[in-house]
Amino acid sequence: VPDAPPGAPTDAHHAPEGHAVLTFSVRDTGVGIARENLERVFEAFSQVDGALNRLQDGTGLGLAISRRLVDAMGGRLSVSSAPGRGSEFFFTVVLPVCARQDCLTGEDALGEESGGTPQALSVLMAEDNLINRMVGTRLLQTGGHAVHGVTNGREALEALEALEALEEGRYDVLLLDVRMPEMDGLETARRIRAATGRWYSAIPIVALSAEALPEERDRALDAGMDVYLVKPVDKRGLDRALDRAWRLGRLRAGQSGAPLTPGR
To answer: Where is the Histidine kinase domain positioned along the sequence (predicted)?
Structure first.
């Protein structure tokens, strides 16, 4: 625990494995925090004890980032503390009880094998949050993929239709945030799958969502998405999602007769 004095004991515990509701907490035996300063510790670049910070160093960003990550998972990071008795930071999140591969892929008859994905893909990413879009773009570019970013479902549809008009080059995969302004990911996916005869009706779609609940995953798959990926996203999870979505898209195109990427 960075804010605990050197050598102070700490501990963490969580709910039993397999439960849908998980609670995590971390306690320290530090100097504690006064009641009026409890929320300040979650503000970026904020420190409630400058003298202590000079001894132990720190930027005041750790808790602000941690709360944002927990918020993205649908939880809330909180603190219980008082001067002289240390602090306890805790949060509860609801996570899927399904196996990890099911949460990533939904209905997948293709098995666990990978390696069918081209080394470099052309990816269209619809994400309204600038930071998430920047992070996703960086992860994709690190993997050698080309990325075009838009901010909502309407812009994603416009980008797909624009490429169809050009009759050359196509996006290989669509990363689609579930919750966006103007047109959300669910409606966008439904319109894409309903576009019979258009090249993009069979495009592989990866759903991006901060919601880990099984019913949210089912809604995305029912709307026509292939893979459900829970934020925050890391490179390993993104690579697996791209691989599976690509292979599912090829299977769909073969069954429907729709070209996956005409003009290539």
So the answer is: 22-99
